[in-house]
Amino acid sequence: MRYKIAIVGAGIGGLTAAALLARQGHDITVFDQFAAPRPVGSGLVIQPVGQAVLAEIGALDAARAKGNPLRRMLGHEANSGLRVLDVTYDHDPEGANFGLAIHRASLFDVIHQAAQQAGVTVTPSHRVTSYKNAYLHFDAHDPHGPFDLAVDSSGVSSPLSPIEAKPLPYGAIWGTVPWVECGLPQDQLTQTYRRANRMIGIMPSGTLPGSDIPQAAIFWSMPRDAHATWRETPLDEWHAEIAKLWPEATPIFRQVTRHDQMTMARYAHGTLRKPYAENLAIIGDAAHKASPQLGQGANMAMLDASALAKALAQHGLQDALPAYAMARRWHVRIYQAMSWAFTPQYQSDSRWLPTLRDHVLFPVSQLPPVPRLLTRLVRGDMIPPMASLTPRV
Question: Where is the FAD-binding domain positioned along the sequence (predicted)?
Fold first, then answer.
């Protein structure tokens, strides 16, 4: 069956869904609110489960050419010097598993190209306000439709999703700067913490579109309402604090010479129990919001897109939507729960949680079989990312 499908939002999840569904022969229209499709944010990690979806749309080789392989995540506590995070992607040094660190612009570029090659076009400057009676409504345009199906991939501010999310107390400022040799391995995401109220990170993230200069994604956590105060603080004071907490990071962070080089990201946590409605599928952040602590956000959106496409290939439309939901149900719930549990240990005002983390949880994490479980958690395959596509209402 060939369906007429509208996709709301030309982000990572929306364009992945567009490429997959167009390759199945569906009539796809993508609507995006911006004048030209563009990514928002700095670097991210495409885990092995997400790389498998990139392979489905023929974009994996291009993504790997622009990204940077990560084989380890390592974190230290600034005051004590204790190692408090240490996860490898593959316990075989020559293993095939790694995280692909990549700038959002480069990831967007390769997925956008895959969507274009599948025959997808994007309709820009169309801000969706509602979906009623098979028609999409916009704030400055006439309605479009009718559509057999709308896919909501419009992210955390979706006007179509009924999700209720709880704001998290901490967010982070993110930026991208050229990679500078400073003694840190290029195949490692490295972080330093002061208790849980400071988290500093450096992630070698490959190259930007049209460039061969290696980049690094950098981040600094802060309370969600602290950004204005940070912008009013001279950068020299910020650099001095970084030098005190993590001297090795100074050459990287010194490249930030203006406050507007760093962008504030605020997080929320929530999950839709039913990520679909009549002729509407909801994917990505519009269906489940969480902190980026486990590095799964873009991966979850791509897995949603893949599950939806597989469900539509196997079932009629009315059965495909509950089948999509069931396929992703437990993977989403478990990773949402893990994110909820891990985030306060690294981003909160708590004093006892980081003490528990450093002196109990981390030592336990190094005892077999826990390291292999943590590896599976980070790779995204702690449980199969897609269960049976049997529809259940």
Answer: 3-132, 202-315
